[in-house]
Design brief:
The protein is α+β, with helices and mostly antiparallel strands. The chain has helices at 4-21, 32-38, 56-65, 167-172; strands at residues 41-46, 49-55, 75-86, 89-94, 97-100, 112-117, 121-124, 135-147, 150-156, 160-165, 180-185, 191-192. It is globular. The chain starts with a helix and ends with a strand.
Length: 194
């Protein structure tokens, strides 16, 4: 129940305390990005009962993607490093690849965690020149999940990124594990996860 700025400060503080003192910490949250950022192990609770437990990325991904509609879909969390201000906006790198942040994002320091929905990413086989989409992260498909009515492709861009697609797109683009893919992410789809 904190406003965004105070929440950012508190999460940054928690992150530093856990890192510096190696304290076991119980963190309770409904926010996927916060859980992904601060936890290395997760317990998924529904209706007062633990329904899944394990390493954060795998366990949370499975809970969110496979049949737990309450979550909508996976939220991507990426760390942007080497931030500098260029012509009124912030630019940095996601695992060595250029990334542009929205003009209004409150950035402090040279690294920043960002979040965006899996439905806000466009997937293509190769980089596409001449687009208004500024962020094109290249990677390899690491997972394909086809479900009734929806499908997700997990792409390793140096960090893990989920993209919601249709089953037809998986076939048309021949998206299989190991295939090259490019994630197109509009700057306006990116939000702070600090």
């Amino acid at each position: 129940a904190l406003d965004e700025r105070l929440k950012d400060r508190v999460l940054g503080y928690l992150e530093r305390v856990v890192e510096e003192y190696h304290l076991p910490t119980l963190f309770v949250s409904h926010d996927q990005a916060d859980v992904r950022r601060l936890s290395d192990h997760v317990v998924v609770v529904e209706g007062g009962r633990a329904v899944a437990s394990g390493p954060t990325q795998d366990t949370l991904d499975q809970a969110v993607i496979r049949g737990r509609e309450a979550y909508g879909g996976p939220i991507n969390l990426l760390r942007v490093d080497g931030l500098t201000q260029v012509n009124g906006h912030w630019e940095g790198h996601v695992s060595g690849q250029h990334f542009r942040l929205p003009n209004n994002l409150p950035v402090t320091g040279t690294s920043h965690h960002i979040r965006f929905s899996s439905s806000e990413v466009v997937l293509c086989k190769d980089p596409v020149p001449g687009l208004s989409v500024r962020n094109q992260l290249q990677g390899r498909v690491r997972e394909v999940v086809e479900l009734p009515g929806r499908a997700f492709v997990g792409v390793d861009v140096g960090q893990f990124c989920w993209i919601e697609v249709t089953r037809e797109v998986i076939k048309e683009l021949n998206l299989e594990v190991g295939a090259e893919a490019t994630c197109l992410i509009k700057s306006s789809a990116v939000h702070s996860a600090q």
